[in-house]
Amino acid sequence: SQQGEEDPQALSIQEGENATMNCSYKTSINNLQWYRQNSGRGLVHLILIRSNEREKHSGRLRVTLDTSKKSSSLLITASRAADTASYFCATDPYNNNDMRFGAGTRLTVKP
Amino acid sequence: SQTIHQWPATLVQPVGSPLSLECTVEGTSNPNLYWYRQAAGRGLQLLFYSVGIGQISSEVPQNLSASRPQDRQFILSSKKLLLSDSGFYLCAWLGTVPSPLHFGNGTRLTVT
Fold it and tell me: From the list A45, A98, A100, which residue is nearest B100 (CB)?
């Protein structure tokens, strides 16, 4: 069964705008990760945030984590057409080795 | 550096035929290994994971099986494929936590 759930399922924005995607999960976690998938390809890791961290930045990416609400958000600033892809969150539960993914958000950035 | 190899990239198989997908990892030892399946336009479903040689955890009862005969080799198999087995199969490895999953390029399986 899936652990994380992203919303929205799909998001369409203009180049230069910011894109925000959310992820909710159900159990306690060690860390939460965000991945990107271009159509028909494997997933590429974007950023990892530990359970004791609240915010993390990497280039144009900003991730927040609220363990009390069991939720995370991914913000992509100044989006580009090349950011068009599906974005997934994944959680690493305590005492388990099973990494579980949400259904993903399909982001389309229009030039 | 670590790399992961997954093959074949695409596969078309008739219903009832057997399946064997192989995944190997280089440059690391004792990784956790994972098989995921992704239906078209959907999220990833965890099928199997392994924390060591011969240790397989199954997430979903189905006609698929997995084996880990060597530390860095993970095999997904089926004796008789079903139409519903069609999908995009992804292998991944995980190092010492906390670390990200590293994915192969996937195998697109079409069962006809």
Answer: A45
pLDDT score at B98: 78
- Residue in B34, B45, B98 nearest the CB of A48: B98
Residues 6+ apart with CB under 8 A from B93: B2, B4, B25, B28, B31, B32, B33, B34, B101, B102
Strand partners, A77: none
B77-82 mean pLDDT: 96
Q: What is the token pair recorded at B47?
A: 């099928």
Query: Which of 26-65 (B) contact A at CB < 8 A?
Result: 32, 34, 36, 41-46, 49, 51, 57, 59
Please report residues of A whose CB lies closer than 8 A to that of B45. 2
Higher pLDDT, A62 or A99: A62
Q: Specify the pairing of strand B87-94 against strand B107-111.
A: antiparallel
Task: Please determine, for residue A94, whether its predicted confidence score (pLDDT) is greater than 90.
Answer: no
Radius of gyration, alpha carbons of chain A: 13
Q: Which amino acid is at B79?
A: K
- Pick B103 or A39 by higher pLDDT: B103
CB B20 within 8 A of CB B77: yes
